[in-house]
Amino acid sequence: MASSLIHSTITSSNACPQSAFPTLNKVVGFKHSHILFPKRRRPLILLASIDEKVPTSDSTTPSFPGFDLPEVPDLTKGDTLKSLKLKLLSSVSGLNRGLAASEDDLKKADSAAKEIEKVGGPVDLTADLDKLQGKWKLIYSSAFSSRTLGGSRPGPSLGRLLPITLGQVFQRIDTLSKDFDNIVELQLGAPWPLEPVEVTATLAHKFEIIGSSTIKIIFEKTTVKTTGNLSQLPPLEVPQLPEQFRPSTNRGSGDFEVTYLDSDLRVTRGDRGELRVFVVA
């Protein structure tokens, strides 16, 4: 009798009904009739049952009164530009700066350039002039595919008067002094048994910004410096042709548009229709 009374007392006063944690019972998957910790607080975070659908998070940014969430930067454009830069560089690689480009290669390079120009948007040199500063290496020119130094209005043909091998081409830009130098490495053929002569020709210009993205260059002089075995010779300034003998289409100046510009890549389209791609040297 005493034993039955004690058991009855414990069951009625200390036992917690099965429904005390209905959600937990459903997740774990077993039933129990007694819990030894009746006064323990219920958990703050409720567990969802395995057969219940958990609502997906809302993609919209929640708002909290009196608290402004920091703006999340849009990385889509930056990632796209990185991908398009790789595409452009891949399309012009292996073309020997355009000298080995076929018609199909020209179309691919032009298409890749147009894509990055579209995503990059208009160039504003009045705000980004400092990005021009420095030495740039030419990695592609559509004009070189015709074996000339021009574009739709080509200049002199390479190797017609002398056997000339074109080396690296650079542009050196000083935004403070407004100096704009085209630097061309050349190898001039010589009759046997003489060795070819290596020279560096520097075409010095001044430049000015026209509008927001166009650069006008004004020719000043050409200086030729021998390199290699003849590097000890002093530089030679090439005299200009008399005014009456200069071509009427080119009075020592020209202009081109910068269609894409960042810290390490520059794309330009010239007044002769040529596409040029530069990287920081």
UniProtKB/TrEMBL annotation:
It comes from Lactuca sativa (Garden lettuce). The keyword Kinase does not apply. It is found in: Plastid. Pfam families: PAP_fibrillin. This is Plastid lipid-associated protein/fibrillin conserved domain-containing protein. GO terms for biological process: chloroplast organization. InterPro entries: PAP (IPR039633), PAP/fibrillin_dom (IPR006843). Its main location: plastid. It comes from the Eukaryota. Residues 83-278 form the Plastid lipid-associated protein/fibrillin conserved domain. The keyword Plastid applies. One of its GO terms (cellular component) is chloroplast thylakoid membrane. Keywords: Plastid, Transit peptide.
